[in-house]
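in:
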């Protein structure tokens, strides 16, 4: 016997659940979120903070230390946010690249890496010029 669907003639009948009704909107929403996370930094940060809170905190602390290490912090920006790697008791952040206004007005960059404790305190940091390519 077939289960009756909803109709105005039988208001007590329950409509049948169909996965297709939720599957397409769900897939569409996931694709839109993936695109937004790629294009909008605030959405990317919110996703990372939710999915990887320890790494996110380490990246934030190291980026703040990198900006503070600039010769002209008021004119410094993060060019590359870097990557966090777990150590036995903390996080190692590498690849943070900072761009800042140089003496002649052109942007100069430097690379920054640091070790960050679980509470977000930067323990040790290293500032170095980026590797030269070509020439």
């Amino acid at each position: 016997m077939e289960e009756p669907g909803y109709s105005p003639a039988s208001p007590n009948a329950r409509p049948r659940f169909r996965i297709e009704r939720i599957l397409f909107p769900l897939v569409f929403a996931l694709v839109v979120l993936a695109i937004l996370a790629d294009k909008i930094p605030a959405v990317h940060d919110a996703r990372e903070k939710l999915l990887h809170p320890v790494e996110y905190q380490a990246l934030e602390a190291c980026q703040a230390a990198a900006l503070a290490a600039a010769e002209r912090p008021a004119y410094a920006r993060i060019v590359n946010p870097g990557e966090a790697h777990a150590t036995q008791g903390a996080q190692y952040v590498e690849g943070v690249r900072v761009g800042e206004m140089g003496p002649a007005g052109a942007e100069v960059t430097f690379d920054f890496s640091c070790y960050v404790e679980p509470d977000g305190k930067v323990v040790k940091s290293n500032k170095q010029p980026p590797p030269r390519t070509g020439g």
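note: The radius of gyration is 25 Å.
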